[in-house]
Design brief:
The protein folds into 2 domains: 75 residues; 110 residues, Endonuclease III, domain 1 (Orthogonal Bundle), CATH 1.10.340. Helix 1 packs across helix 11 and helix 1 packs across helix 12. The protein has 12 helices and no strands. The chain is globular, with a radius of gyration of 18 Å. It starts with a helix and ends in a 17-residue tail after the last helix. It binds a DNA duplex through helix 2, helix 3, helix 6, helix 9 and helix 12.
DNA sequence: GACCAGGCACATC
DNA sequence: GATGTGCATGGT
């Protein structure tokens, strides 16, 4: 089928239009994981404020987050929105980290990808997109991250229905593209970039590098 | 003031 | 399995 050509073609169009995105914007894998939780249904500019707060308070490390109260954590991450829920989710992640891995992310990375994924999914507040973001951007595993922008673009091009499952979208990319961490890294980041610019009200409208009107 | 943003869990049918 | 709802801030 022509999906292979289409998907890699989309990638090249986006890449030549926007260039390298240099994701994930974080200094450490741990920061990626916390950022992945904070960015759930939230603009990154708000997440950045929360992360800056955590850094300023010297809280952006497993030990500090293990000992901080959930109330205090809520206040620090407030700008990211949904702060009460996200504080619980971060705590659940930290508990997992200390219950099974001595608070050390490096130990997790050595395991098989699907094994890590199911462990992440068992943590309260970590769903498929958050788990896959951590797998790809923190652990550098070749897992394609599907987000709302991805679904909009793919469904607008009538490759899949918008209501298709997460797995169906992910399988599309896994099957049609080579399993390549750098490719998946850049591709997802480019979807987010093009989504921010063009997908708000009129996805793939005039001027968008993936516009339906230009071939 | 309305609308949106790099989701997820939970209730209900 | 599908659908609806609560969660919340800050930018446009």
């Amino acid at each position: 089928m022509s999906c292979k050509a289409s998907l890699i073609n989309f990638f090249h169009k986006l890449y030549s239009f926007y260039g390298e995105q240099k994701w994930w914007p974080a200094d450490t894998p741990f920061e990626v994981a916390i950022g992945a939780i904070l960015t759930q249904n939230t603009n990154w500019s708000n997440v950045k404020k929360a992360i800056d707060n955590l850094k300023r308070e010297e809280l952006l490390n497993p030990q500090s987050l293990k000992h901080i109260s959930i109330e205090r954590l809520s206040e620090v991450i407030k700008p990211s929105g949904y702060y009460r829920i996200k504080a619980k989710r971060i705590k659940a992640f930290i508990d997992f980290l200390f219950d099974y891995y001595y608070g050390n992310l490096k130990i997790i990375k050595e395991q098989e990808t699907n094994n890590i994924r199911s462990q992440l999914l068992s943590i309260h507040g970590i769903g498929q997109e958050t788990a896959d973001s951590i797998l790809l951007y923190a652990f550098e595993k070749p897992v394609f991250v599907v987000d709302s922008y991805t679904k909009r673009v793919i469904s607008r091009h009538k490759i899949l229905n918008y209501n298709s499952s997460y797995k169906e979208f992910q399988d599309l990319f896994h099957n049609e593209l080579k399993q390549d961490v750098q490719l998946y890294n850049e591709y997802h980041a480019l979807f987010v970039r093009v989504g921010k610019d063009y997908c708000k009200t009129k996805p793939l409208c005039d001027g968008c590098p993936l516009s339906l009107d230009r071939k």
